[in-house]
Amino acid sequence: MEAPKTATASASDAKLHFLDYWRIIRIRKVIILAVFLLVMITVTVVTSIMQEFYSSTARIRVEKDTPDIALWGMTGGAQPYDPYFLTTEFEVLKSSTILYPVIEKLQLQRKYRERFKTQSDWTVQAAAEVLGQELDAKQFRNTSIIEITALNPDKNLAADIANTTAEVYEDYRETSRTDQTGRGLITLTNQLADLNRKVQERSDKVDKLRLELKVPDAVAEGGGPFQSIMADETRRMLGNQTEIHTRLTMNKELLANLRSKTGDSLRYTLNVNRPTPLLQTLLADLTIAEQQKARLSPDFGPQHPEVERVNGVLAKINSQIDEVVSGILNSLQAQIDTDQATLVAIKERFEESKEEEAKLIAKYRPYMREKKELDTLRRMQEAMTLQLTQENINAAISKKSSVRTIDRAEPGLRPVKPRKGLNIALGAIAGLLLGVGLAFFIEYLDTSVKTIDDVEQALGAPVLGVIPQNVSNLLKEGPESPHAEAYRVLRTNLLFSRKDPNLRTITVVSGGAGEGKSTTIFNLAAIFAQQGSRVLIVDSDLRRPSLHKLFNVANNLGLTNFLLKQNKLEEVVQTTSIPTLDFLPSGKLPSSSMGILNSGAMRAFIDEAKSRYDFVFFDSPPIMGVSDAAILASEVDLAVLVVQYRKYPQQMTLRAKQMVEKVGGRLMGVVLNNINISQDSYYYYYSGYYYDYYSKNDESRPPGEKGGKDGSKSGVELKKKY
Asked: Which residues contact 507 (CB under 8 A, 6 or more apart)?
């Protein structure tokens, strides 16, 4: 159940956040429009006076150099991929190697002088800088085609520059290939001649050493004595040594196994591992004799002639078997001794062969070293001869064209710079973004009170009312004025905010001058009086009184005259056109108001006025400028802080609230004044609805029944109270 609530709250926050941005744009729309028009006009003027340029493009196909005929060791097909090849050629196209010849062919030094209207011809370097800026080379998609684009106010010259650049680049590639091939052939020829001389000298030296050292043909042709004379014998000895060593190991293991056995076990083990025909025959005869004895034993005794005969045969066979077994063991031992002696002889012979081989190697080493060097030089000679032959043939035959123009540049039909439509469109976007950005930046720097949230968060005080812009005298506009409803809302909130009905003396303060506190207290008192309450409004601003101007009366007699006991209260209080509304001007201004407002007479006056009237309203000067407002806030029951919309910083308003609280005043809340309802839709539902409603009611009435300025009977008419 919580998920839908969270989603709804998030959507609401996002919507309010967007409305805050929209509110800033509406409020700062003049700045946005001014910046937008300024940027648009500037871009349009600059674009209109910019010089027009024409563009021409020549397209060339660029590949690596390849021969028309594939030679041995070479390929005429596709070259290995080089990711930097075309990038390198772009830089070559814009280098002085290409640009200087183009400048010379097209006489661009003189043409640039005429174009830029200078006194003398340009240098080649200066002309190359301009040409490099107006010349561009880029790859056409993922191909080996390069597009050479030239910009110039003269469309024919732009085409000539692009075509001439392509021609100069093609000549440069051909010349570079020819020069490079020629230099290579000369270098290869010189190197081959020097190599031939070295081969001949080395060959003579090898022949001389062969005669001196008497090197046999086998060594000279085979490449080394250890590979010719001793190679076969060494391989044979190593083979015999391996064979004998294997046989010796096996015989030793067999002899050790046989010596660990006796009797029939020895006989049969020997018959399995070293079988001989005689031993096999004797063992077979022994088996037959034992079978005969086994048949005779149950029927005849040991003394029976047949039994004695069989026993004699068995004894003779066993004796013969023992002699054969002994002979086989002796033969096996003899073979082991022979193999051991043979291994010793082979080892000695192998060592002798190694010594002989070492002597031969040492003897023939100078010859073999020189012969090895000769073989290396000959291989180099063959490779270089083949390379020189290839290069000579390659230089003699034709080559495929590595650079070829596929599209020549033609004069442009219309200018490509400046792009007026695009520039104006980008200027419009930039102007709009800059204007919006500046508006938000100014809004960010503006720390004044803008919204009800600003008041409640910064001051921690409730907003009692929101007063729209251009509010005038409600006594002139009449009770049905569209502005009157804002003050009725203020009156209602003020009454409901009171905790005690006896709190009936009210002062309206503000942080700075011009925030509309006098107008607010005047209209608020009029609304209270129109609702039937007996109201006294006192102009206690002894610095710059202004309420008498709203009532259109003189300010000769008033509060100061009463407090100084020059006149009685009945003589200074004046009535208005509303029977329940009385007015007390400030009177003649004293040299110092401090002693007057902060006196017992002032406190006695407040008590007396409170006893005669339902509500008493006191006007005051700005609380930040003088101390009068703070004194009044401490003496009356309630204080209301008026804050003008977007005028003073929030810190100033916060300081005004703190000053009221420090002197013990009871701040009921804040009134936001001078709100532009039509501009700031944030406050529409606070006051705009009533304004529209009453405006429509006024339009539906007959002209003679409209109140306010069109013949209202509620105009200000003051006279003495008593």
From this structure: 521, 540, 617, 618, 619, 620, 629, 632, 633, 636, 638, 639, 640
